[in-house]
Write a structure and sequence with these properties.
The chain is of the alpha/beta class. The chain is built from 14 helices and 10 strands. α1 packs across α4. The relative contact order is 0.11.
Length: about 290
């Protein structure tokens, strides 16, 4: 099933307009397999025919379905477990000391996919009841995919999904089996609010998060779009907050709004906007 350049550009432009993501050469091989279900449903024979349909007026539903199919929603509980250990043993204790007076933490899981990352964070808090007693923990999980957010809100996972990343003890403590699926317990779901949101838009409320997790999202952006995303993330984080990126992502050479943290290869600190603006001039003068 060949994809000509013109058809590919139409689909790529649609993805970029809706999400900011780029349909790079490395992602082209996924197009036909990702859209195979839509081809069958709509009676489409090839990508060229799909591109023609997308160009017609009134095909908003089909366009939305195409974008949803092309998004990469790969995730699992406690993905990259070492990172969650750093959060539990260093980042969250640091925030606990700083927020002791108000006893409230706000965390943003940006690009949360089907919710496993946000639920993993909630499990960390639930497993330390003594430390977090009387605290208000608010976790907001956002994703550009309405389908992913629908799954996250349901809190329902298959046997395969539930076995990825968590122990048997965690599975039994925080989930219950229901008609062949596993339902997340209210004691962790109650900490989380899921909503559809594009990371290129202004941050969701409360707007000044103590911790922002944005892992494996920026990989799909071009440099200009990535800079916009960093600006949005910076506007949504507390001045003394933390940001965690994925293993293949960095702020170095990408933005002046964040700097590497004192520990943790994927942890970063916000830079005050006034200093970020002055910093290039300071470097030029030195």
């Amino acid at each position: 099933m060949a994809v000509d350049d013109a058809s590919h550009r139409i689909i790529g432009d649609l993805l970029a307009q809706r999400t900011g993501q780029q349909l790079t050469e490395g992602r082209r091989w996924r197009v036909t397999s990702a859209l195979s279900g839509l081809f069958r449903e709509f009676g489409i024979e090839n990508v060229d025919q799909l591109a023609c349909m997308l160009e017609r007026p009134g095909e908003h539903r089909l366009a939305t379905r195409v974008v949803e199919a092309l998004l990469n929603n790969e995730t699992y509980f406690f993905r990259d477990h070492a990172y969650f250990s750093v959060l539990a043993n260093q980042v969250l204790p640091d925030l606990a000391r700083k927020r002791e007076a108000r006893k409230r933490l706000s965390i943003w899981s940006a690009g949360c996919s089907t919710g496993q990352e946000a639920l993993s964070l909630a499990m960390i808090f639930a497993e330390q009841p003594g430390r977090w007693r009387d605290w208000k923990i608010e976790i907001i999980g956002t994703d550009v995919s309405s389908k992913a957010i629908e799954t996250a809100r349901s809190g329902l996972y298959t046997q395969f999904e539930i076995q990825r990343g968590i122990s048997v003890a965690q599975m039994l403590n925080f989930f219950s089996e229901s008609n062949g699926q596993w339902q997340a317990a209210d004691k962790i779901r109650s900490m989380i609010r899921f909503q559809q949101h594009n990371i290129l838009d202004f941050p969701p409320s409360p707007g000044r998060f103590d911790l922002v997790m944005c892992r494996n999202v920026l990989l799909y952006f071009d440099p200009e779009t990535r800079a916009t995303a960093f600006s949005r993330l910076a506007s949504g984080i507390a001045p003394d907050g933390w940001m965690m990126l994925g293993a293949g992502e960095t702020v170095v050479g990408q933005t002046e709004r964040f700097k590497p943290a004192e520990f943790g290869s994927s942890l970063y600190r916000p830079v005050l906007e006034e200093y970020a603006k002055a910093e290039p001039c300071l470097r030029a003068a030195s």
